[in-house]
Inverse folding.
């Protein structure tokens, strides 16, 4: 399996910002990309945004209301997910509607649910997924 995600430096959200310097660790470039992907999923707020987007597109203002977080916080997390290629925006007038860019993400989260259940830490990451 090949994961095409840019390696990035951390910003205030703990997410990458940009394409990075191109440096690789001892793990190699493929593992760096995988680490960047999993790092983008390592925050509860970003997982909450992904769970919401699994139900359909929405605006940052709607996410702010649903999550009870500051607009700047939600925007920063959405930007992180966009930079990683997991979320995309569709402009409509002065608004942007966000949706999941990769349906494979839900397969990944379903696999994570299965793994977490097997290790005794069951959690529901995928809405409507029944293990």
């Amino acid at each position: 399996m090949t994961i095409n995600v840019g390696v990035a430096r951390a910003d205030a959200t703990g997410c990458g910002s940009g394409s990075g310097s191109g440096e690789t660790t001892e793990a190699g470039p493929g593992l760096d990309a995988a680490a960047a992907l999993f790092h983008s999923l390592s925050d509860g707020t970003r997982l909450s945004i992904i769970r919401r987007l699994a139900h359909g597109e929405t605006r940052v203002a709607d996410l702010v209301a649903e999550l009870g977080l500051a607009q700047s916080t939600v925007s920063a997390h959405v930007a992180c997910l966009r930079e990683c290629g997991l979320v995309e925006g569709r402009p409509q007038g002065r608004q942007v509607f966000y949706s999941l860019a990769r349906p494979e993400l839900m397969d990944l989260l379903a696999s994570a649910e299965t793994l977490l259940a097997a290790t005794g830490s069951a959690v529901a990451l995928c809405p409507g997924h029944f293990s």
About this structure: The chain has a mean pLDDT of 80.
